[in-house]
Design a protein that fits this description.
223 residues, alpha/beta, Protocatechuate 3,4-Dioxygenase, subunit A, six-stranded mixed beta sheet, four-stranded antiparallel beta sheet, 3 helices, globular
Length: 223
């Protein structure tokens, strides 16, 4: 799994206006770093490297988050990851997810890696099976307290033959009352396809299907 870890160069690029040592660097050097960062597949993102913190060596296609065992509405997110043609299933793709708890906070837990606490304790990984399928058992995230942003689950993707990861559209829920107002002000990027999922109810369980098309609307995608 060491080959999946970002190089020191990529880690340095996530530090704004500071070098790897933490010392200030010349403005033109920082601008060069920013320009290189933008050339990454997906254009880079704030905190991309957190995906690799505590990543298990063996990642199954089904993951159950710690939130599943906490208070909250149980939610199953399942889907298929496709190649850029939208038809061919993509195996061995790692999806990293993180979300708020049932109160809308990225709540950390004791003994978490200090850097990863910004993503909270409800986080995990799945790797698509040979048919491109994955399942995440978790709870329905709550929206941020006193905010107009709809509830969501963040996703980052690491393809086996790409050097760096990239993010896709967040998973949003079609029954979220905050969703329509939000999309009136903010246009969807549809990175990897639409993140809006239809929520189905089976007994006391919510089920959502979320497919992803690799590279769709992803800047600098090479395929």
């Amino acid at each position: 799994m060491k080959s999946l870890y970002p190089s020191l160069f990529f880690l340095c690029l996530t530090i704004v206006w500071a070098g790897c040592s933490g010392k200030n660097t010349p403005a033109h050097q920082n601008q060069n770093n920013v320009n290189e960062y933008k050339k990454l597949v997906g254009g880079g993102c704030d905190g991309c490297e957190i995906m690799y913190i505590d990543m298990p060596e063996n990642i199954p296609s089904v993951d159950t988050s710690s939130g599943w065992f906490e208070e909250g509405q149980k939610l199953i997110v399942a889907g298929t990851v496709f190649q850029i043609d939208g038809k061919t299933p993509a195996p061995d793709v790692i999806l990293y997810y993180w979300q708020t708890d049932n109160k809308g906070y990225y709540s950390p837990k004791e003994k978490m890696d200090k850097t990863a606490t910004r993503h909270g304790h409800i986080r995990g990984w799945v790797k698509t099976d040979q048919n491109g399928k994955y399942i995440i058992n978790t709870i329905r995230p709550a929206p941020y307290p006193n905010d107009v942003l709809p509830a969501h689950i963040h996703l980052s993707v690491k393809e086996p033959d790409l050097e760096n990861e990239y993010y896709t559209d967040e998973i949003n829920f079609d029954d979220d009352k905050l969703l329509i107002a939000h999309f009136k002000k903010h246009k969807q990027e549809n990175r990897g396809g639409s993140g809006v999922v239809r929520v189905l109810i089976r007994e006391n369980m919510q089920i959502a299907e979320h497919d992803i098309i690799l590279g769709l609307n992803i800047p600098n995608y090479p395929k």
